[in-house]
Amino acid sequence: MTPGTPGNTLEASMEMRRVIAGKMGNAIRYPERILPQLFLKIKHCGKVKRISTNGKVFYEYEGERYPEYLATGNASRFILEKAKQYCRGRGIDVGAGKWPLPGATPIQEGKRQDAFKLDASPDGSLDFVFSSHCLEHLDDWQRALRVWIRKLKTHGILFLYLPHESMRLWNPGGPWVGVMHRWTPTCEVINPFLVTHGMSVLEHNPDRDAYWSFHIVARKIT
Fold first, then answer.
1. 90-148 per-position pLDDT tens digit
2. What pTM was computed for the model?
3. Which of the listed residues 45, 93, 139, 144 has the most CB atoms within 10 Å of its CB?
4. Which residues contact 57 (CB under 8 A, 6 or more apart)?
């Protein structure tokens, strides 16, 4: 059947109806999530401009230009080589999405497991816990980190990769993330928490990298 025939038009119409019905259903079930997100999309409408300069594409927002690739996902590819230096043995990738760390068991939000529930991994059983662009989505990020640390063996590695605060499109309430990002992670906040919970910070990069993100590597010592 060729594009534009009645059959294709009907299928497209039915698919659009399913999409709309799904969005309406989510708005009814989770109004505290969907409605603020919709409000923010309206608020920021037109504020982000897509521009091209010297063959490169950027998004411009509040006077800053951000590379186009920041909108494509797969953040972990920018920290992969560094992560492979530390993340060895048996480990998990919390919030892996479509791009889990090679060799890690991906952890997605579900009925049996999520960032707060990792029952498939006994306490003290993991060589590493890796997480890329996940912690900023959690209101109770401290509880999540306590769970992740508890699952590590002594000398196990916690590797965090997080959005840098200078990337304003990703800041809470920003046009790309709205209410989905619940807080702004920084080394100044996370490192002291890790130290008081039996971890030793091996290295961290407080400055933004090519993906406008930063990383923290810590080892469990108790």
1. 999 999 989 999 999 999 887 678 999 999 999 999 999 999 999 999 999 999 999 99
2. 0.80
3. 93
4. 50, 51, 67, 68
